[in-house]
From TrEMBL:
InterPro entries to which the protein is assigned, alphabetical: AraC_lig
Xref: Pfam families: Cupin_6
Gene Ontology molecular function terms on file: DNA binding
Top-level taxon of the source organism: Bacteria
Domain AraC-type transcription regulator ligand-binding: 2-59
Keyword annotations from UniProtKB, A to Z: DNA-binding
Protein's UniProt name: AraC family transcriptional regulator
Native species: Streptomyces sp. SID7499
Length: 70
């Protein structure tokens, strides 16, 4: 949605912390394999990483999270 994109910076990073590290490890392992269902698994993992990035961005000190985010 345009509202989401307008609330974010041009580049958003995913912190490799205790919450995202397992997701990043799963993503790495899934990319290294070529198995049935890989595309679906990658789609879901990327969904989870996007949510983690959004949470990190809007939880930072001084963040001006839009009202619809809460």
């Amino acid at each position: 949605s345009r509202r989401l994109l307008d609330a974010l910076p041009p580049l958003l990073t995913v912190p490799a912390d205790t919450r995202t590290r397992p997701l990043l490890d799963l993503l790495d392992a899934e990319i290294a394999q070529d198995e049935p269902g890989q595309r679906v698994v990658l789609d879901r993992l990327l969904d989870l990483l996007l949510i983690a990035a959004l949470r990190a961005w809007f939880a930072r000190p001084g963040a001006d999270a839009p009202g619809w985010y809460r």
